[in-house]
Design a protein that fits this description.
- By secondary structure, the protein is α/β, with parallel strands linked by helices.
- It is built from 13 helices and eight strands.
- The protein folds into two domains: about 170 residues, NAD(P)-binding Rossmann-like Domain (Rossmann fold); about 100 residues, ProC C-terminal domain-like fold (Orthogonal Bundle).
- The protein has an eight-stranded mixed β-sheet, with helices on both faces.
- β7, α7 and β8 form a beta-alpha-beta unit.
């Protein structure tokens, strides 16, 4: 954190992900005068942060101070907005910065060309729980990234949750398919259970499903044992749970469905990387 506290930050793109990092910087004691935001469409939430914390928001790169030299730059725009965002003015501002991209489908080689910063551009991905500081992030460094920038990158991503480094960039597609989309899979399962419970006449199904998921997660964390062992403890021989699991764990059950779903998501992630 000592390195981050001395740094200046430029967040390019303040959608849900960008705002999560802005909040994390503020919550971790980074001075608002060292946080600069570049965002064309300023949301109500971003305006609220601006009023309360006096952060600096600009709508165009030409509005940024010419002598601005951010230490760390976060690229958080949508993939189809990246080329337009990285105009000549912005590239001149960030050419000596540590640039961290969390843009889906944009490979390190492409990012380096666009930023014109081959020595300090890194690729990362994260997921939506970053908004609560409970994100799961993955980062890839090529061999040109210095030790200090590796440390800074991990500290920065660490502000919003867990950080994992991979040595193979293609694993970012796997991460995206499993963990980037992972919250949606969990929410879908919750939706399914809620619908079944409501159909059966349980009026408080929504809150009961939430409590079941929350309680199960806390049980997993408190016991510090594998989900497999906990599942076995819940499954009495000849009981109701065993009867249900015989359906879910049959050869055409949940495992096969998830294998197919994640393979499809991974394929799409690779397609996006080629666009």
């Amino acid at each position: 954190m000592k390195l981050l506290k001395k740094s200046k930050f430029l967040i390019i793109g303040a959608g849900n992900m960008g705002i999560s990092f802005i909040k994390a910087l503020i919550q971790n004691g980074i001075s608002s005068k060292n946080i600069f935001i570049l965002e064309k469409k300023v949301s109500k939430e971003l305006n609220k942060i601006k009023r309360n914390k006096k952060i600096i928001i600009k709508k165009s790169s030409s509005d940024l101070a010419e002598n601005l030299r951010p230490d760390i730059v976060l690229l958080a725009v949508k993939p189809d907005q990246l080329n337009a965002a990285l105009d000549e003015v912005l590239v001149s501002i960030i050419h000596n910065s540590l640039v961290i991209s969390i843009i889906a489908g944009k490979k390190t080689s492409e990012l380096k060309k666009l930023t014109k910063n081959p020595m300090s551009t890194v690729r990362a991905m994260t997921n939506t729980p970053v908004s609560l500081g409970m994100g799961t992030s993955i980062i890839y460094f090529d061999n040109k990234i210095s030790r200090i920038n590796r440390k800074l990158s991990k500290e920065f991503l660490g502000l919003v949750g867990q950080v994992n480094e991979v040595k193979n960039e293609s694993l970012i597609d796997t991460f995206t398919a499993i963990f980037g989309s992972g919250p949606a899979y969990i929410f879908l399962l919750m939706e399914v259970l809620t619908k079944i419970a409501l159909k059966s006449g349980l009026k408080n199904a929504h809150s009961m499903v939430i409590q079941t998921f929350l309680g199960s997660l806390l049980l997993l964390l408190s016991d510090k044992i594998s989900p497999e062992v906990l599942r076995q403890r819940v499954t009495s021989k000849g009981g109701t749970t065993e009867a249900a699991l015989k359906i879910l764990s049959n050869p055409n059950g949940l495992q096969k469905l998830f294998d197919k779903a994640i393979a499809k998501a991974q394929k799409r992630s690779k397609q996006l990387s080629k666009n």
